[in-house]
Amino acid sequence: MADGMPHAPLVTRADSDAVVTLTLNRAAARNALSRAMMATLRSALEDIAAEASLRVIVLAAEGPVFCAGHDLREITAHRTDTDGGAGFFAATMADCGALMQAIVHHRLPVIAAVEHVATAAGCQLVASCDLAVAGAGARFCTPGVDIGLFCSTPAVALARAVPRKAAMEMLLTGAMIDAGEALRIGLVNRVVREGAALEEAVDLARGIAERSAVAVQMGKRAFNAQIDAPLAEAYRVASATMVENLLAADAAEGIGAFLEKRPPRWQHR
Q: Member of which family (predicted)?
């Protein structure tokens, strides 16, 4: 049950060839990340990881808010627990960290399609995705400081997506930024007309899905392994991946096709 509506799933799924769209479907609650919502989304990601025919994931949302962050009503309800809510709060943050890492470490690229507002852990969700497309009316903030709860966990994803000082300004002021500013600092990759974010994200996903799946998946894995490593370790990881990739059938096919001036025929292995 979602928001009193029987049988309404918290996350819906739609497949189109090699692209799968997951849509947050808790609009009446501003798509807040309750523990049930996070578990459902993580389960959907796990299911997709096991389906070899899929190439790219798009993450969208129903309703007037992309995601309002953690479910503050759910959190507040547990303040009457015998431990003051400490156990529930710890489990909630662990669930959130696991979800964000599931996106980062997923074998497939994940593209956020953002309309309207993404706040706090909702902004964290966008920052955790590999790519993001925003409608012109989209806005982003990490406003925990306004309610005495610094957005420490959103800061992990935000600081890895945008420059340090841009992240700190968002975190320290809680100020809302528009889609244009999000594009300028690198939180999103593209800004499109309002209402067109999902269409653009799916088009972007289809373009990626046309590439060699083995190359894309190796590349995502190596990128995330090297990005925060010391320079020598980063080159070790990247070099090992290049060797692994060169030994793949698709690399032989792609290089051969380039030299022969013909389109490649990917085997995705």
A: Belongs to the enoyl-CoA hydratase/isomerase family.
- Find out whether 33 and 16 touch, Cβ atoms under 8 Å: no
- Sheet arrangement for strand 177-178: 117-119, 139-141, 177-178
Residue 82 has pLDDT above 70, yes or no: yes
Do the domains 213-260 and 11-209 match in fold? no
pTM listed for this prediction: 0.95
pLDDT for position 8:
87
* Alpha carbons 15 and 21: distance in angstroms, whole number: 6
Residue listed under structure tokens 């007309």: 193
| CA angle, 81 then 86 then 90, to 5° | 130
With CA atoms as reference, report the closest residue to 188 among 161, 152, 165, 209. 161
Render 29-82 in DSSP notation, one character per residue.
GTT-B-HHHHHHHHHHHHHHHT-TT--EEEEEE-SS-SB--B-HHHHHHGGGST
Architecture of the structural domain at 11-209: Alpha-Beta Complex (3.90)
What dotted CATH number matches 213-260? 1.10.12
To the nearest 10°, the Cα dihedral for 89, 91, 97, 98? -160
Interatomic CA distance for residues 89 and 75, integer angstroms: 7
